[in-house]
Specification:
Elements (H helix, E strand, L loop, with lengths): L4 E10 L9 E9 L3 E5 L6 H8 L7 E6 L2 E2 L5 H6 L1 E5 L10 H5 L1 H5 L4 H14 L4 H4 L9 H13 L5 E5 L7 H18 L2 E6 L2 H7 L2 E5 L5 E5 L1 H6 L4 H7 L3 H5 L15 E3 L4 H10 L5 E4 L5 E5 L1 H5 L10 E2 L3 E2 L5 H10 L4 E5 L5 E6 H11 L6
């Protein structure tokens, strides 16, 4: 990430007739090329209004906005918007168009040929982990909320814009799907390196998603703008402290990935396995539980001695099913959540093909957090 500003706002104000207070008041802000800048703050602080000002869905009352050095008020609004991807909470897919047709919207407006558009549709669906053969010809009503949001991201990326504006993009999705979409988007951003302005009301999401965070008061006054680490360690004032809320150490788990910690290796049993051999291996280890793997090294179940001693059930149906596994790019907050819900108190980690890598434990997580907070070594 470079530090030159791709987007710059200078004393921007947006006032609506008949309203005593401006929605945005004298906002000056720079968004660095290749960064994710998160705007976060209480309802009514001007976050979404700022996004709409950047791509001229609404016009500023006063002030200047620049995109790559060019004053956007001198540009054709329609041409400007084709240079900027826009993702909203409600997704906004056209219900009468197929997924492929939705993604093709901006490339068609730009006059791309059919072959190039078709290739781009397939490329983007694969990028957001949706099989083109399965999803190209479906309609939005045939998608889950998470799938629809992925298509919304794909559509925003269709013309390969330098800038993405994201307004509460994961806000209306269930927590598990939301975590996965956040993690997947962060993985994509490592490759795409887009310049992103991301709006949320959720400070935990802001900490997770942002390279920098701008915490706004009412009227879009910036209370503090800095990296998540610096804001957590040194909040600027009481307003920021209150907005962060309690539990800064727990919030810091969002900044760390499973890849940052050393995985714990517990005994594994690979199918097909004899019951006596499995029991011996578990008794000879210090662990209370083993992980049963299938023939492709994918985790299936937690197995303990009691389960192995129940001879009425085959081994592949013994113990407790592993219903959630994590990947190295998931956060330690994700890992803690899984551990607290796991019957074994473990978070199982796999690679992207689902093959077992190891486990996260409360002990390993605690050691890393203590080290990060300066009370020990990591």
């Amino acid at each position: 990430m470079t530090t030159d500003a791709l987007i710059r706002l200078e004393n921007v104000t947006k006032a609506y007739p008949g309203q005593e207070e401006a929605a945005v008041r004298n906002l000056s802000l720079e968004v660095h090329r290749g960064e994710v800048l998160v705007l976060v703050g209480p309802s009514g602080c001007g976050k979404s209004t700022t996004l709409r000002l950047i791509n001229r869905l609404i016009e500023p009352t006063s002030g200047r906005l620049y995109l790559d050095g060019e004053d956007v008020t001198s540009m054709n609004p329609s041409l400007l918007r084709r240079k900027i991807g826009y993702v909203i909470q409600q997704v906004g897919l056209f219900p009468h168009r197929t997924i492929a047709e939705n993604i093709a919207t901006v490339p068609q407006l730009l006059g791309w040929d059919k072959k190039r558009i078709s290739e781009r549709i397939d490329e983007l669906l694969e990028l957001v982990s949706m099989d083109p053969a399965t999803y190209r010809d479906r309609y939005p009503k045939e998608l889950s909320g998470g799938q629809a949001q992925r298509v919304g991201v794909a559509r925003a990326l269709a013309a390969d814009p330098d800038v993405l504006l994201m307004d509460e993009p994961f806000g209306a999705i269930d927590p598990i799907t939301r975590d996965r979409l956040q993690n997947e988007f962060l993985r994509l951003q490592q490759d795409l390196k887009k310049t992103i302005v991301f709006v949320t009301h959720d400070i935990d999401e802001a900490i997770k998603m942002g390279n920098r965070i701008a915490i706004l008061r009412e009227g879009s006054e910036i209370a503090q703008i800095d990296t998540p680490e610096n804001i957590l360690q040194d909040p600027a004032d009481e307003f920021v402290e209150n907005f962060l809320g309690a539990g800064a150490i727990l919030k810091s788990l969002t900044l760390m990935r499973i890849a940052d910690t050393e995985l714990t290796q517990i005994p594994t049993l690979k199918l097909p396995v004899m019951r006596d051999k499995a029991l011996t291996e578990l008794q000879e280890s210090d662990a209370q539980v083993a992980i049963l793997l299938d023939a492709d090294d994918k985790p299936l179940r937690f197995i303990d001695e009691a389960a192995l001693n129940r001879t009425s059930q085959p081994i592949e149906k013994s113990g407790r099913k592993i219903s959630v596994d994590l990947q190295p790019e998931d956060t330690l907050q994700d890992a803690l959540s899984v551990m607290l819900q796991s019957s074994a108190g473990l978070a199982v980690v796999t690679d992207r093909k689902g093959k077992y890598l190891g486990c996260c434990t409360i002990e390993s997580l605690a050691q890393l957090v203590i080290g990060q907070n300066g009370h020990g070594t990591s």
